Fold this protein.
Amino acid sequence: MTEQVKLIVGLGNPGTKYDQTRHNAGAELVEQLADQLHSPLSPEKRFHGRYSKARLDGHELHLLVPTTFMNLSGQAVQALASYYKIPVESVLVVHDELDIPPGCAKLKKGGGHGGHNGLRDIIQKFGGSNAFLRLRVGIGHPGNAKLVHSFVLGRAPSSERNLTQAATDEALACLPVLLRDGLTKAMTRLHSFKP
C-alpha cells in the first residue's frame, strides 16, 4: 500500500557556480520543501550534505541535499540511510531528467540510472540495489548527446525555468498524496499535470 518514504534526497552540485543550473533541479525542489515545512537545511558533516528533519502530514521525514559533487551523491545518501537504518525502498531521490520535457515531473520506483551519474553512484553505494523511488523533474534534452554535459550544467532561460517551477510546485503538492495514499495515486495526479 503506502510507500513508507523516510528520506527525501535532492541531487545537485554544490557551490554558487552551479546554482540554478538544470542539473540542480532535484536539490532546488528539496530546498523548497524544507522552506515550506519551516525546517531549514543545515550543513551536517557526517552526512556529506545539508540536512534537516521535518514533518509532513504527520510523517517524519529526513531531508538531504548532498554537498558532494553529483557523481558522489551515493556517499551522502548511504551515510544517512545507514545511520538512521532507513531501507533503500524508503528513499525518494529527486533528480533532473533529460527524457522528460520542462513542465513535467514523474514518479517511479526502481529502474536503471540512464546515464545519470548521481543515480549511478547511489545504486552502487546501495550494493547495486535500485529499489528506491525517484521523483524526476523534466529538464528536456538538447537534441544531441554531445551537448548534454554543457546543457545540464547550464542555466535555463526564464521561460523554461517557469515551466520547471510549475512542475516542482505540483510535485511538492503530490508529496502528501504519496505519503498518505501511496505511489499509484500520487503518480496518477502528478503524471496528469499540464503546465
